[in-house]
Structure formats: structure tokens, C-alpha cells
Amino acid sequence: MSIASLIAKKKLLTIEFNPPKNTDIQKHILKLEPFKNIVDAINVTDSPMAKPRMNSIVSANFIKDISEPIFNLTCRDKNKIAIQSDLLAASALGLKNILAITGDPAKDNDSVYKINVFELIKLIKNLNEQFNTGFFIGCASDIPKTNNISSIESRLKRKSEIGAEFVITQPIFSKNDLERFLEASNNIKIHKIIGIMPIVSYQSALYLNNNVKGINIPKFILSKFENASIEDFKLITFELHNKLLNDIKNLLPYIDGLHIMKLDYEIAQLTKKFLEV
């Protein structure tokens, strides 16, 4: 199955799943079970931050009875032959949704990067045409700042023209963020799933803000968490998420769904209700 059949009918809700750093996938499946009737798809990451985790295709196959998986595939770790082999295996397993991304670079020049993300999208499209693999091809996009809207537009347009059919963005933190992305993508034929990242801890937020390309957490949001107690932290996270949803409400007609970058049942429930109104 592909989320392509859903995306034309409703606003999608997707969540992010990082596969285990060991072999214990069953423990993670239990954590995903409560989301079974809430989310439309689960985005399965491919060793984010270049830290080894269980293969995204294998992990996606394990969780496909919970929700439709979107497996990530980076350019970072394999050459073209290995990537094509993985794609053929994914198709044989019945996996249809793929997010083609560059991937966070590994340290010590340990990255492969034999092909770039544009070549990866072309490769997937060629497999669709040659072997009828039926992949629904997705890509990622940064949220533009005021001074780089045209460059974000150009990069996303190129991905769309060579085969990408949907995009999952880096997280937005304000209505202005979403408005800039919609300006950049206004004339691009692509389904738009917008990333939202509830903050799980002050230290992790600082780390992501300083080390992950495309994540730009405003200082006023970080300051709210700096000295918050454990009890206040969850309340602040929920309040900020609720405010963001209300702020972007009038922009819903221009997007195709929301992607929550955290396994949080209450946040997912709130977002589902918001999308169903």
C-alpha cells in the first residue's frame, strides 16, 4: 500500500520512529502500538546523526502492521549498487513509501556519498519504470529563512521535476516559518507534509539546534525550557504545540499533512483532532 491513496482524501498525520541501536525491535513495536489508530504513516529514519541503528527497510517491514511505513534512504552509507539492491528488496517486501535524503554526514570522513539526492530520486523513479516497483517517492526540505527562499524553492522544484511526489519538511516553530515555506513551494507540484518538533529536553534541543542542518529553534522558545521543572516542561511543550496548531489553522488548505518528530501520544491525539476539524 502507498500513502498516495490517502493523501488525496485527507490531511495526513505522520510520526517519526528511530529504529533501535540494538536488535530489540519488539520493545519499540510495543511503544508504537498505541499510535495504530491515530497516525496514517510512520516515518522510519535511516541512522540519523550518522549513528548506527537497525536498517530502515528491515525496521519498516517489522512495523507495517501498525501503520503504513515511510522508510528513509540516505546517500551517505552505500554506493549505487548497494542502494539499488536495497530498493529491490524493499519492493519485494511490499514497502511502497520512501523518503530519499542526503543523510547527516559521518565523522572522520567515513561517509560514502557516491550519489547525491537528485541521483537517488532518479534511480528510484527508474526502478518504478523498469520493474514496476511502485514507490511513492518523497524528499525532504529545509524551512527557508527570509534570505534564502529562492534557493529552497530551486532545490525543491528540481526534486519534484525529477520524480519526488511528496515532501516532509524540517520542523516549523511559527506561522511565519510555514508561510515562508509555502511561498517557496507555491508553484511546485508536490504534496506538502509539514514537520513539527515538540521539544523533549533543553539539552537535546540545544544540540539539535547547533548541530543539525535545517533545525532553527527560536531563542524565545529555548528560553522557556532552560530552567523549567520536569512537570512544567511537559506543560510548556503541550502549550506551545497547541498554540502553533491554532496559529497555522488558516493555512491548512495549502498543506497535505503534519509530521510529528516525536513519539508522544498526547501530542499525536491533539494533532489528529486538529486535522479532523
Automatic annotation (TrEMBL):
<dbReference type="GO" id="GO:0106312">
    <property type="term" value="F:methylenetetrahydrofolate reductase (NADH) activity"/>
</dbReference>
<dbReference type="GO" id="GO:0009086">
    <property type="term" value="P:methionine biosynthetic process"/>
</dbReference>
<comment type="pathway">
    <text>Amino-acid biosynthesis; L-methionine biosynthesis via de novo pathway.</text>
</comment>
<dbReference type="GO" id="GO:0035999">
    <property type="term" value="P:tetrahydrofolate interconversion"/>
</dbReference>
<dbReference type="GO" id="GO:0005829">
    <property type="term" value="C:cytosol"/>
</dbReference>
<keyword id="KW-0560">Oxidoreductase</keyword>
<dbReference type="InterPro" id="IPR003171">
    <property type="entry name" value="Mehydrof_redctse-like"/>
</dbReference>
<dbReference type="GO" id="GO:0071949">
    <property type="term" value="F:FAD binding"/>
</dbReference>
<keyword id="KW-0285">Flavoprotein</keyword>
<dbReference type="InterPro" id="IPR029041">
    <property type="entry name" value="FAD-linked_oxidoreductase-like"/>
</dbReference>
<comment type="similarity">
    <text>Belongs to the methylenetetrahydrofolate reductase family.</text>
</comment>
<comment type="pathway">
    <text>One-carbon metabolism; tetrahydrofolate interconversion.</text>
</comment>
<keyword id="KW-0274">FAD</keyword>
<protein>
    <recommendedName>
        <fullName>Methylenetetrahydrofolate reductase</fullName>
    </recommendedName>
</protein>
<dbReference type="Pfam" id="PF02219">
    <property type="entry name" value="MTHFR"/>
</dbReference>
